[in-house]
Structure formats: structure tokens, C-alpha cells
Amino acid sequence: MHKRICAAGLFLLTGCATPESGEALKSTFDTGVAAYDAGDYAKAYKIWSGIDDIDLAAMRNVAMMLRKGEGVAKNPKKAEELYETAAEAGLPTAQADLADMLLKGEAGSPNPKAALPLLEAAAAANHPVAQFELGQMYETGQDGLVAKDIAVARQLYISAASHGMKEAQDRLDQLGKDGDTSGAVRLMQPAPASPATTMSASSDTLQPARP
Length: 211
Prior knowledge:
Largest sheet: none
Helix content: 40-55%
Distance between the termini: 26 Å
Number of domains: 2
Number of helices: 9
Order of helices and strands: HHHHHHHHH
């Protein structure tokens, strides 16, 4: 059962009671980031799992570590459940990660139908992996879930490539080789973005404590 979401999706405890808030919570989160960057995954997992019921970013990172088996035994099913809670609260990185798991069938059979609305939400929030995977759906008209539309796919690839995602640029190049010359767009520089909104092309990017 998912915890109740309140206070704009940042605090998840019943009744919105929080043992940490503001700068103290950010400091705890950042300590986890430092431990993760240092390769001390067990410490990072312990820190983030201690605040994952009050911080969506920590919840998403705990799910990521459960998914990969970093600092904790690999548990795709539990990872999926945590991703779902954070995704339902509107966290784009969680939406993209959960969609990726569903597409790959990491915790069961592949489920592109369930992945589609998650990809749409994350792509609208400018998440490059979601844009790329949604573009693939439109390029192929996957399973009849969306109408095949190369123009839509191309625009999604352009958006993903603008963040430096090589796979998206490769698809644009291939569309050009296949005769769709409007798809052969070479984006040499990533689109400018502020540090608060920039996301890596990797679905494993750590989500900052405060969007």
C-alpha cells in the first residue's frame, strides 16, 4: 500500500509529520550523495532509506539502488513499488525509471501499455530518456499503442539529443539515411538549461533533493 502523498508530494508521512525539514533534510540527502559518489553504496542506501518516507528524491534513489543491487540486495519488485509512489507524486525521474523497468520487464512481463503514460509525463517534463523511448514508440507504432508518426518521433529525438543523448542523435542520423532528410539534424551543442532543470541522459542520474 502506498503512503499518502501530501505537501506538494515532498512529504509522505501520514499526517505530514516530518522529523527533518528544510536545510536539515537537504543536508542529510547531500550526505547520501557524497557517500554514493565515493562508492560507499551501503552508506548511501542507509542514509536515503532513512528519509525515503519524507523525501521523494530519496525514495527514487532508494528505488534505483534496489533496482541495481547497489548497497542492498537487488529487488526489482520493491524498486518498482517505490518508483510507482514517487511517479504518482509527479517526480519525472521516477516516471522515466519506472517506464524503463516496465518496458524491459525487469519485475515481470514487459508492459509497454503501462509505460506509455509514464513516458508521456516524463517526456513533457523534458526527461531525455523518456523522450527517446517515447520516440521509439512513435517511430514503430509499438503494439498499436500509438499511431506510427515519424514526425513526432523525430521531434522527441531532437529534444533528447539536445541534452547530449547519443542514442537519440544516432536515430536522427539513421532517419536521414533512410530517406527522411528532415530527420538528419546534427545537434552539436546541448540546449541551454539551468542547473535546476538539467537532467542527464542516464536514467541513473541522482535526483536533487529539491526540484
